[in-house]
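hiii so um. not sure if this is the right channel but i have a protein structure encoded as tokens and i wanna go backwards to a sequence. like what aa goes where. can anyone help
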């Protein structure tokens, strides 16, 4: 789910982009040393959210409202927060989430950047807000029926694609490319005995073309290099039309960009596997 920030203002460059250009959240300023939280279960510390492995998580110690602090201390612009493997949308949790920061006044005043929002499910969340340098981002979680849980948190600057997904061929929508690995035994008489699910994920591919060489080298190639070096990423394929369809992904093949000898423009495809719950 993509949540647009309060009074979102894009840069002049991003304002000029076509509508619905995909968003890729790969840059991440969250580290083991700059995260803290109000409470944490002793077996599930807050430092777990800085690990991109989605099977490792932070859990609050109780069901009360929580605040998670990301001490970024950066002069770089930050415009998104990504959250994966949370339980906010579970019926037994129902936890509203909000992104913002506290100012330096006494007492401190909280400024909301995006939200609050009550997710309808547990799909990955992306909060997109006006780019700005922020010392400490705060994730505010309302009290819920169950203790809050988070697997991964990213914060940084979004990669806004220069162009949308190619329209000259069919393409897969990330959230619907469901794959299941399973064993389906049958009896000696041929009866169906059910199946054992070994794993479930989504697989998808997207092709982009006519990218300007300067844009590719400046913005896309650093993403490819990081993703090829085991950096997962958040992806919103159609922010305006389908804001609920976001995924947390990793590359299954290294992209091979191709350059047109006529125009010098670059075409590239990414093939990915990810989670959407």
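sure thing!! here u go:
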């Amino acid at each position: 789910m993509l949540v647009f920030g309060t009074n979102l203002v894009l840069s002049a460059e991003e304002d000029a982009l076509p509508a619905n250009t995909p968003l890729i959240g790969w840059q991440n300023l969250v580290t083991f040393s700059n995260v803290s939280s109000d409470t944490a279960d002793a077996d599930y510390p807050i430092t777990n959210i800085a690990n991109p492995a989605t099977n490792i998580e932070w859990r609050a110690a109780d069901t009360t409202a929580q605040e998670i602090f990301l001490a970024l201390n950066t002069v770089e612009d930050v415009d998104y927060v990504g959250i994966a493997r949370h339980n906010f949308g579970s019926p037994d949790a129902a936890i509203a989430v909000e992104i913002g920061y506290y100012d330096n006044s006494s007492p401190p005043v909280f400024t909301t950047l995006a939200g609050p929002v009550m997710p309808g499910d547990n799909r990955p969340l992306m909060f997109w807000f006006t780019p700005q340098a922020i010392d400490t981002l705060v994730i505010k979680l309302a009290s819920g029926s169950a203790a809050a849980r988070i697997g991964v948190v990213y914060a940084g600057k979004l990669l806004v694609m220069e162009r949308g997904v190619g329209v000259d061929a069919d393409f897969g929508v990330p959230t619907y490319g469901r794959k299941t690995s399973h064993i389906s035994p049958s009896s000696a008489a041929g009866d169906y005995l059910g199946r054992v699910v070994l794993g479930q994920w989504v697989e998808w591919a997207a092709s982009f073309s006519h990218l300007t060489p300067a844009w590719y080298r400046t913005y896309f190639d650093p993403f490819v290099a990081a993703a090829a070096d085991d950096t997962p990423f958040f992806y919103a394929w159609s922010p305006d039309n389908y804001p609920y369809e976001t995924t947390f992904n990793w590359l299954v093949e290294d992209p091979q960009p191709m350059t047109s000898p006529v125009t010098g423009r670059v075409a590239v495809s990414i093939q990915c596997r990810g989670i959407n719950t």
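oh and The chain has two helices and 19 strands.
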